[in-house]
């Protein structure tokens, strides 16, 4: 792959701006709709992929979103510093709707790198318990928390379990190993404290030699390298390399026989291993926002984990995300989606278990089903794989990202690109600029999609909220409002609104910092923390004055406001 010919320029992260002073405003008169108007831009900017200057580091590595004089306003209302900057830069209606997740690894675990990702639009930081030890993860999680506390971000933390699927050991500390065509390698369950001799790979699963047969195909990391099993010698399995490739530490192993994945004793491995339970305790103690369960097979394990979390952490609300990456998960897809708080289309391992050409249609189906069932959905793996090594994406990668945005997935995820790649910030800015561009195109073309939304409410009261949100989204589109405001306790009404994918941004106001962080995963939601009261009139007045003071709304903006406590809907102009 040649890099010389690539001339793509990447966007600048949003820069801090100086808010104007905070003043109180008169009570807005309600129910005062006015003729349709289009969104305005607060500052000249372009979301074109080709028209951004190179990313600039934050001045002195410090990102101060608000002047000290505004401490009072900060205490009253919190919004993600990066979102605030984006809102001002791109204008009200042009804020990014698609959320971005970055896997944190050796390339991005430092405080400065994490801050650059937050400035660049990272909504969720992901740590994968497959790699690194707990101390390392603790350091990352706390660094993200510190960034939120000190610099005004609301980056949520997601922790993936390792799961008990079969994978290689860590190559005795070597960063990688190259397998060449025709070479014979030994895959062994023998563990070794010291580094293993050449061409011997440790396998973490004791039943490995029993499960495989001569003639089977062994896929490393979803087929990045392939071997054929030639013979078994006790705990050792000798294999010949048939497709050369790079072996990375702890790469997943899949065995294929007669065109499908072998499921022998390994099918009985628990979804959550004993090591995973200890990692989960660690995640609860560190206050992660989401736990993503690898290789989910059924809804049962999700329900089990949810009750475990509820018993362990009174009042805490950790979202449980089901990673769909196996044949069993596909069989039980709908019940798994219903049981979980969100879903990840984990295309890496999924593509190792089913024929690759089936992955795109399954992705589309999952995105659609999740939206119908009101669960956030993440599209993950290999979005910008070439950017692990090169500073610009391939056209095909840009097309893949565009397709996920067009499908209106809630979030896109970087894996190796941000964890161990050479250009994590550039990869993030590609996701950002492609998302903005496709979303804009979609709005300009007025492609309101006619997805029939299923009825998801379990009570009459919920049904009222659902109907309010469906109507509000329809009104927002036909009146061309600038934003929908939703005042929400637990975030549920905000999620129902996000599900409708309205044309305008959704400002979600909640008094809980953890709800606010969790809402950061949902499509189109701009979560604010606001200590609100029962008095809607009062909430609206405060919100308008605080947002006006920060240049985030203007007099005359048309807004629809919803409240889950009052189950109310109002249309008004910002006074
Ligand atoms: N904490 C870490 N320490 C070291 N390397 C890491 C870490 N996290 C990720 N990586 C590297 O980045 C790569 C991509 O990360 P990712 O989390 O997608 O892992 P993965 O092994 O492909 O598993 P998964 O299927 O869960 O995504 C990994 O293969 C690993 O090389
Ligand atoms: C993200 C992940 O686990 C996968 O794609 O396999
Ligand atoms: K994993
Ligand atoms: Mg996986």
Mind explaining what this structure looks like?
With 575 residues, this protein is an alpha/beta fold. The chain is 34% helix and 19% strand. A hairpin with a 2-residue loop joins strand 9 and strand 10. The longest helix has 21 residues. The N terminus is likely disordered. It catalyses: pyruvate + ATP = phosphoenolpyruvate + ADP + H(+). Its cofactor is Mg(2+); K(+). Belongs to the pyruvate kinase family. This is Pyruvate kinase. Its EC number is 2.7.1.40.
Q: What small molecules does the structure contain?
A: adenosine-5'-triphosphate, pyruvic acid, potassium ion, magnesium ion
Radius of gyration from the CA trace? 24 Å
The number of helices is: 18
Strand content: 15-25%
Q: What is the arithmetic mean of pLDDT? A: 85
Instruction: Give the overall form.
Output: elongated
Give the termini separation.
56 Å
What's the total number of strands?
23
Largest sheet, in brief, is:
8 strands, parallel, barrel
Helix proportion of residues, in percent? 25-40%
Strand order of the largest sheet: 2-3-4-14-15-16-17-18
Class derived from helix and strand content: alpha/beta
Q: Which regions contain 5 or more consecutive residues with pLDDT less than 50?
A: 1-75
Enzyme class: transferase
GO molecular function, one term: potassium ion binding
InterPro entries: Pyr_Knase, Pyrv/PenolPyrv_kinase-like_dom, Pyrv_kinase-like_dom_sf, Pyrv_Knase-like_insert_dom_sf, Pyrv_Knase_AS, Pyrv_Knase_brl, Pyrv_Knase_C, Pyrv_Knase_C_sf
Catalytic activity: pyruvate + ATP = phosphoenolpyruvate + ADP + H(+)
């Amino acid at each position: 792959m040649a890099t010389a010919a690539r001339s793509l320029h990447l966007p600048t992260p949003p820069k801090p701006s100086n808010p104007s002073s905070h003043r109180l405003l008169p009570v807005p008169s309600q129910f005062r709709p006015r003729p349709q108007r289009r969104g305005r831009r607060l500052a000249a900017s372009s979301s074109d992929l080709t028209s951004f200057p190179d990313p600039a580091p934050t001045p002195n590595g410090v990102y101060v979103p608000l002047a000290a004089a505004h401490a009072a306003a900060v205490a009253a209302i919190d919004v993600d510093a990066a979102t605030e900057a984006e809102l001002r830069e791109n204008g009200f209606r042009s804020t990014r709707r698609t959320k971005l997740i970055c896997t944190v690894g050796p390339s991005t675990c430092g405080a400065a790198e994490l801050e650059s990702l937050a400035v660049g639009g990272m909504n969720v930081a992901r740590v994968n318990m497959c790699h690194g030890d707990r101390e390392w993860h603790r350091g990352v999680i706390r660094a993200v928390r510190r960034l939120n506390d000190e610099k005004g971000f609301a980056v949520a933390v997601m922790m993936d379990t390792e799961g008990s699927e079969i994978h290689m050991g860590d190559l005795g500390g070597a960063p990688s190993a190259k397998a060449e065509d025709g070479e014979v390698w030994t895959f062994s369950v023998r563990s070794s404290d010291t580094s293993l001799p050449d061409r011997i790979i440790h396998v973490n699963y004791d039943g490995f030699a029993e499960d495989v047969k001569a003639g089977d195909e062994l896929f490393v990391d979803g087929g990045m390298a392939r071997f054929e099993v030639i013979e078994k010698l006790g705990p050792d399995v000798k294999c010949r390399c048939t497709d050369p490739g790079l072996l990375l530490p702890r790469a997943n192993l899949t065995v294929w026989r007669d065109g499908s994945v072998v499921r022998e004793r390994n099918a009985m491995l628990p979804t959550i291993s004993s090591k995973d339970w200890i990692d989960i305790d660690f995640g609860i103690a560190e206050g992660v926002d989401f736990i993503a369960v690898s290789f989910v097979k059924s809804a049962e394990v999700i329900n089990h984990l949810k009750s475990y979390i509820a018993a362990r952490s009174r009042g805490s609300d950790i979202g449980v995300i089901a990673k769909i990456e196996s044949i069993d998960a596909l069989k039980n897809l709908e019940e798994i989606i219903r049981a979980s708080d969100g879903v990840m289309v984990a295309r890496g391992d999924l593509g190792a278990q089913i024929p690759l050409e089936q992955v795109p249609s399954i992705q589309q189906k999952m995105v659609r089903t999740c939206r119908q069932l009101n669960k956030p959905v993440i599209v993950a793996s290999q979005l910008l794989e070439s950017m692990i090594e090169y500073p610009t994406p391939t056209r095909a990668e840009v097309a893949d990202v565009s397709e996920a945005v067009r499908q209106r997935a809630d979030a896109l995820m970087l894996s190796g690109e941000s964890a161990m790649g050479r250009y994590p910030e550039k990869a993030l800015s590609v996701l950002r600029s492609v998302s903005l561009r496709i979303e804009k195109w979609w709005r300009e073309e007025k492609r309101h999609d006619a997805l029939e939304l299923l009825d998801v409410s379990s009570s009459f009261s919920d049904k009222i909220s659902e109907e309010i949100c469906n109507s509000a989204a329809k009104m927002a589109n036909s009146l061309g409002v600038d934003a929908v405001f939703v005042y929400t306790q637990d975030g549920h009404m905000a999620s129902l609104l996000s599900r409708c994918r309205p044309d305008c941004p959704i400002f979600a106001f909640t008094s809980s910092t953890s709800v606010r962080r969790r809402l950061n995963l949902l499509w189109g939601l701009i979560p604010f923390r606001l200590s609100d009261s029962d008095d809607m009139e009062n909430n609206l007045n405060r919100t308008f004055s605080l947002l006006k003071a920060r240049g985030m709304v203007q007099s005359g903006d048309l807004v629809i406001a919803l409240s889950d406590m009052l189950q109310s809907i109002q249309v008004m102009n910002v006074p």
